Amino acid sequence: MPNFQKRETTIAIQTFSTRNSLAAEGARLFEREMACLFSVGLSLHSEADRPLTTDMLAYRGRRLQFASLRFSPHRTSASPQASSTQPRWLVTLQKDGEAEVSQSGRTSRVRPGDLFLLNLGEPFHIETGDITTHSVYLDAETLRRAIPDAASMTALPIATDAGPGAIFRAVSDEMFSMAPTLTEMTADRIADALPYALGVALSARIAEVPTCPTRLQVFHRERIRAYVVEHLQEPGLDADYIAQGVNLSSRYIYRLFASDALPLMKWVWAERLERCRQDLVARTLINRPVGEIAYGWGFSDVAHFSRAFKDRFGTTPTSYRKLYANGNRAA
Questions:
Q1: Which domains, ranges and CATH numbers included, belong to the chain?
Q2: For burial by CB atoms within 10 Å, which of 39, 92, 128, 198 has the most?
Q3: Block mean pLDDT (10 aa), the chain, length 331
């Protein structure tokens, strides 16, 4: 009798490009494509005199999803309007060009050969020149099981030219090389292994911290961050307010965040400024006064808010909004 064997299918491959689209539509088309392919909510902006162009080769397995992308200069942030029902983390290996990435009060310059990690469920900001990247989208729960302290490692550049980072780079490069022939079964196994390969790469950064946080400390940090994000609009949000809300002492909370690039309350300010920045350019809020937006995110002094905004983004809130509005009209 003939021996019929079920042939394992290969993962789906899809291409996308904005090069044949109208200049004004490129960013929005890419946002919709990312939401469709990877359940990721993004908001992209580019300069009026150079609209966004991008090329993407996307690979979508049952559990393994990754993409090779090429971009012109642009800014990317978490989209406040789009939320994924499937929480994701982004791991990006910078192949060409440089980028500035920010999340959780940390801002870093990423150069070719570096990788970085972002929680796509939390606010972030990326600003780039012309770049080429290899990006992998990982399930949040799977990643946290492999790397309990992942939240403390976002927006940090990890070198991959040597040392532990080179292991993840080798795995990633080989995965992209064999992508056209990857079967679903092999892709599932790679999806299981990738978070642990990433953990090896991050170990170089973890080793720089004098003492690694315990699982309980990581749990408390994530709980505190979640509480802060939920109460950012409260004007009285300070260390004592947070401590009371999470039933911990303010002294212990300060100690939990002592090794971070930004102290706890400066991180709170950074989060508020990012939310204000997003509201300033949101189409539905374009007529809302700057002061009202500032008060809405917990700032009690508009002048102080304007100075802090200019220090963070290089221009005043009003000028930032006008620049964005002019860019949209020009596009």
A1: 12-206 (2.60.120.10), 215-330 (1.10.10.60)
A2: 198
A3: 57 92 85 88 85 93 94 83 63 95 88 94 91 93 82 89 91 95 92 91 65 70 88 89 88 78 80 90 88 92 91 88 64 38
How many Å apart are CA 46 and CA 53, to the nearest integer?
Answer: 9
Please identify which residue in the block is written with the tokens 């009026």.
48
Cα 160 from Cα 165, distance rounded (Å):
4
The strands making up 42-45's β-sheet, listed across from edge to edge, are 42-45, 74-78, 124-128, 99-103, 106-110
Rg (CA), the chain: 21
pTM of the predicted structure, to 2 decimals: 0.61
- CA neighbours within 13 Å on the CB side: how many for 174? 11
DSSP 85: S
Query: Three-state DSSP class for 134?
Result: strand
Give the pairing of strands 99-103 and 124-128: antiparallel
